[in-house]
Design brief:
There is one protein chain. The protein is of the alpha/beta class. Helices cover 35% and strands 18% of the residues. The chain is built from 19 helices and 20 strands. The longest helix has 18 residues. The relative contact order is 0.13.
Length: 554
């Protein structure tokens, strides 16, 4: 939601104060109009396919293997991705192995790099504030992960604000230490944030810029050397962002960028012995990585996210709009998307559901407020709909049909924004619960209602869910909020009348709770948790007490 409002500022704002670094730049004379870009988003097509390369040991390189990506809107083969297979991982393994466990910098080694990354962040943020650069990334995101211009530009905006947050001295403040007096003169203990050294970042398709960029910069800020793998369907976005970062001063050998399938990346992680891997994506892959890498992981995996509407009914139009945004923006392809809506009986007496239906039905392919689903086919979503409708008392509220008059290729999904009602008592039955709480990464939600005396059943349902990423408690009743928040665990929980499940700006923690492997993103706390560990240095320099003698053995 913040993204939608923020994009207006992004498109309207002109660069008023240029950094001295930028004063000599003439964008109009650069290739493709931008000094870093190797593609033009609007020109990518089946007749002019773009190419995505790999970056290893400081050089952009091609491979013999090409993965052809189909345009999600018309099925044309419009991007060719150079993918590394298992025989080609050795240069990446060697590069990562050259990075020591103590990292490329730490509080005792090359501290000037903290300042360097503050400067890089300032320059990159300034670049993203330029309308031409912002529009370039917005359009590129739309080409590979079709979503509305407002949603795509909001992603660019959040990325820019994150970079602004870590300009200047803010990077070195991440490594702030603390000291505690010792037991005798000359003894002090100091706690430091220490890098892991060689690390890996694996990110999904749905936020091609925001997720990989925020995690990449966090890893770099703390002194690590990362290898970055983004889903090949959308990796062109981060490939272009890498080139922008190099233009802004990032040493080209500091990051390895790889395109590969999952099997190849898994082999690379094992052979390179990365000290920590950040994975954002499916729970199935997350659990496999946790085993293969012996727990050296941080995870932000699947999110079956819930929203509870409390007993106090107010601002019906606003609440309906937020429900629509949470469930169906980006065609429901957000890890924070509203998957289940619990409606208090007081809301059931209003026109909330009919308003949600009206809002869902105004979404269309023309402006990409609904669009292709990149990881779930139409057939799979319709099959899930039919299984839910076999539950006693369930009914289709709206949607549930394939999109019409489109050229989306069948490897992707294309259905109307869909909501299915399932009675609360039926949801809680053992043979139904797993089916109802299966995450469908598309424009699909389950709706139920409850009476005041059934709140314990609602809380039992959220307790039994496996993923605990985001949640929303829509109420201004402090006692109701206290009851729900005190009996739930989701790591990013919005509370109050304006509560939502999506939005994930750069100004607060975003990540799951209830799992020691849980990763956060965006804030100083998230960066320090994910990308550094604690190291204690105890200084004990003396002097010895006068007339000290060797004591008896103990």
């Amino acid at each position: 939601m913040n993204r939608i409002l923020a994009c207006r500022e992004l498109r309207a704002r002109a660069p008023q104060t240029a950094l001295s670094w930028f004063s000599s730049l003439n964008i109009s004379r650069s290739v493709h109009g931008l000094p870093f870009a190797t593609v033009e988003a609007e020109e990518i097509s089946g007749s002019q396919p773009a190419e995505v390369l790999n970056l290893v040991q400081g050089k952009w390189k091609k491979t013999a293997r090409w993965n052809t990506i189909l345009d999600p809107l018309n099925g044309e083969p419009f991007i060719k991705v150079c993918e590394v297979d298992e025989t080609g991982i050795q240069p990446f393994v060697e590069s990562l192995s050259e990075c020591p466990k103590h990292g490329l910098h730490n509080p005792f080694k090359a501290p000037e790099r903290y300042l360097m990354f503050g400067d890089i962040s300032a320059k990159a943020a300034h670049m993203l504030s330029l309308p031409k650069v912002s529009d370039f990334f917005t359009r590129l995101i739309q080409r590979v992960a079709p979503k509305s211009y407002q949603q795509a530009s909001g992603e660019v905006y959040v990325t820019r604000k994150f970079l602004e947050n870590f300009a200047g001295d803010q990077v070195r403040f991440l490594a702030r230490s603390f000291g505690v007096p010792g037991n005798h003169l000359g003894q002090q203990s100091h706690g430091f944030r220490w890098p892991y050294g060689p690390v890996a970042i694996v990110t999904p398709f749905n936020f091609p810029l925001e997720i990989p960029l925020l995690q990449l910069m966090g890893a770099l800020y703390m002194g690590n050397k990362p290898i970055l793998k983004v889903d090949s369907k959308v990796s062109i976005v981060m490939e272009q962002m890498m080139r922008l970062l190099h233009y802004c001063g990032l040493p080209i050998e500091d990051v390895e960028f790889i395109n590969s399938d999952g099997k190849t990346m898994n082999k690379l992680l094992l052979e390179a012995n990365t000290r920590m891997t950040l994975f954002t994506g499916s729970s199935r892959v997350a659990e496999k990585l946790a085993l293969d890498l012996k727990g050296r992981v941080k995870l932000e995996d699947a999110g079956f996210d819930w929203k509870i509407l409390g007993p106090d009914v107010q601002e019906e139009d606003y609440v309906a709009w937020v429900c629509d945004q949470d469930a169906y923006a980006c065609s429901g392809q957000k890890c924070s998307a509203q998957s289940m809506l619990f409606i208090h009986e007081n809301w059931s007496k209003t026109s909330l559901l009919s308003k949600m239906k009206d809002l869902a039905e105004r979404r269309n392919l023309e402006d990409l407020t609904i669009g292709p689903v990149l990881t779930v086919t139409t057939e799979t979503m319709l099959e899930h709909k039919n299984k839910l409708l076999q539950i006693s008392g369930s009914k289709l509220l709206f949607g549930g049909e394939p999109l019409k008059n489109h050229s989306i290729p069948p490897i992707y999904g294309a259905i109307e924004p869909t909501a299915i009602y399932v009675p609360l008592e039926e949801i809680l039955k053992g043979n139904n619960f797993d089916l109802v709480t299966r995450e469908i990464f598309g424009p699909f939600q389950v709706v139920t209602d409850y009476r005041s005396d059934q709140l314990p059943l609602v809380l039992d349902a959220v307790e039994r869910m496996h993923a605990h990423l985001t949640a929303a408690v829509v109420s201004n009743d402090p006692l109701f909020l206290q009851e729900v928040i005190g009996n739930s665990v989701n790591g990013t929980t919005y509370a109050g009348l304006r509560a939502r499940t999506t939005g994930a700006p750069q100004n607060h923690w975003f990540g799951p709770a209830g799992d020691p492997r849980g990763a956060g993103i965006g804030t100083p706390e998230a960066i320090k948790l994910v990308w550094s560990c604690h190291r204690e240095i105890i200084y004990d320099v003396g002097p010895l007490p006068k007339q000290w003698e060797i004591p008896p053995s103990t």
